[in-house]
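Here's what a typical entry looks like (Alpha-1,4 glucan phosphorylase):
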Amino acid sequence: MGVSRAERPSDRSRQGRGQDRHVLQPREAPAWSAPARTASGDAVADMREAILAKLAYVIGKSPTTARERDWFAATALALRDRVVDACMGAGRTVPNKRVYYLSLEFLIGRLLSDAMNNLGLVETTRAALAELGIDLGTVEGAEPDAALGNGGLGRLAACFMESMASIGIPAIGYGIRYDHGLFRQSLEDGWQRETPETWLAEGNPWEFVRPEATYTVGFGGHVTMSAVSEGVIRRQWHPAETVRAVAHDVPVVGWRGAHVNTLRLWKAEAEAPVDLGQFNGGDHVGAVSSRSRAEAISRVLYPSDSSMAGQELRLRQEYFFTSASLQDLLRRHVAERGDVRSLHDHAAIQLNDTHPAIAVPELMRLLLEDHQLSWEDAWHVTSNTLHYTNHTLLPEALETWPVELMERLLPRHMQIIYLINWMHLEEQGKVGRHDAAHLAAVSLIDESHGRRVRMGHLAFHGARRVNGVSALHTELMRSTVFRDLHALEPEKIVNKTNGITFRRWFHNANPGLTTLAVEAVGARVLDDPEALRGLEAFATDASFVARYAAMRGARKEALAQIVADRTGIDIDPSALFDVQVKRIHEYKRQLLNVIETVALYQAIKAEPHRDWTPRVKIFGGKAAPSYTQAKLIIKLACDVAKAVNDDPEVAGRLKVVFMPNYSVSLAEAIIPAADLSEQISTAGMEASGTGNMKFALNGALTVGTLDGANIEIRQHVGPENIFIFGLDAAGVQARMATPNYARDAIWASPRLAAALDMIASGRFSPEEPNRFRPLVDDLRHRDQYLLTVDFDDYWRVQREIDAAWNDPAGWWRMAILNTARMAWFSSDRSMREYAEEIWRVKLG
């Protein structure tokens, strides 16, 4: 099904853009916005004049000289003024309790569409720009993605911040204002290449710099002791190095502008920008060395920790933003309430994973040293204010830090950790738990691997509540990584299944589908996701299904254009779009998908005249720069794509695409166009996932294992509307205990053996025949993530999917039912549960 030229990205919007710039369609008119023709003339005129004023007096450009980026900045500044108006209009009363959300990542993406949508100004802005001869889609496309995160952790934090603003939870998010984020991914002959993500090259019009909110963060040095009274000794840290943390605030506007919260990001600066003595003495480089060292903290997200220097920088980052955030919230609390002893009554601090776990000793230090509390009072405040979200069961992802590094970089904190641990272990002795193995298991210090601080244990012990992010994940936390700690405090671990903001991932990302929903079940669906249930009645309505299919076809046409622009590969929008886009990691099993692609390629070549279901496999995601195996998987996917796409025998039946530089804005184009969502991680290893929720909400059918939130998605959409395969978590554990399981699985599956042989033979890398042998050898001899064991069932379910696709009425029925039954996965529901059961915060 085609789209008119007017529906496609304009030629102008594509000019001057790099291959990895996301080209947007002009934004569709959503059903919940007044059409431009009936919008208030004054509102449109006011917006037009506001944009022109920003363009002239802030950007310093005229309409004739302004670039696309200038128009974006002017429009964003005009919208920002209205966000501030909404914030001021909400009043400045001090809430009884405020949430502080500490996260190393906030993957907020582009903010212009969020602001327009949540303020109800999409059509007003479109009309104002149109009167100036500017297309709204072009302006939106000129906004860079904010490079403040990497994957699900950061996107979850962004969803939670938006939901808290939407449902009225007073909150401040704390993170780092990264200059370059992770990296910009490009592909050179299929190999991932990393370059800096220069999203701040022309500034960020959404932020407010707050120089008055600047804090000093220390590193290194020594600790002194002094007697303040008989029997009372105070310790004082004297850092050898200090760095300034300067606040930059980004407003987070909630739905319909009723509430506005703040995302406060810290930029690292040196105490002195230049050593004038050194500079004047001729050492011009050395004179700014301290500045470079300080600013490195907020330079790049997740510096490689493969070296000791990288590990130290990672720890410096984590302590830097945690310390600045705690100093800031304590200052605010004292100004509002007077006494830090009441902090836990008026503040709830959520630690998003172990990155801010250093908050436990840092909050203790601040209460002990700066506010002169006793140890007992400080611990009472700390352990009743902090809460910890665990996001992983993988041992390598549960952070630990060498004691030597901690003692050198944060000597006072290491003293506090030792004392917390000593008191913790003493308690075990008091209740008769003297067993050495038990004490080793619950200790905050791991003595078995060169003495390391267990940050997960530290966060667990210092938190009032610890939560998992899906039902399965929480149960596995209790029975695996925190089994011994859970036995000591069985009420501490609770489950809070993740959610996604429907404003971004439904209203904004898929206005066509949202319009259909509004027309079918009413405007209430915009405020109450439960109203989506009404779509069930339309799942077999011929007229609705036809409009649904047409809407999906238009989104697939748009994605096909983006794929062609970015990769030069032409794909057929009528084919089944089979999508796996997420961070590249072995446990997420992109390799299983690639191997099945090779097996399908072999099957098509063996029977070219069979009626194969046309399929387009779309991959996307970044591999960590030091993750060699993940980067090799990307290369294999690209080499398989080249061979498949160049083979005339499979033309029209199979295409493979790897989309470079996967981002939030690209996800907003891919997800509404996807037919099949690949959620195929090894059961028991994905904590939750949120991509699975976004795809299902937009009507993609899920093929997945019983892992993470897939289990709960299955419960809600119905087992007949999802494709499940493979071992469950218990089966994975049992099979891992079986010797030679990989060898046996390959021997039992001729199809798998043939695919592995083709990859190992150099068929996809003739210039380097042994290129992919490490991947194949690992599967044959170790297969840590059980790809070989699950392969045959994965092949089986994919052929079931082929059959389902060839029944359009049945497919669209399942797709519509997925959308209709996803309301529970709203992050509004998640935030209400956190507020009621963890933070004890009343909604505004």
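Residues 308-337 form the longest helix (30 residues).

More examples are in the samples folder.
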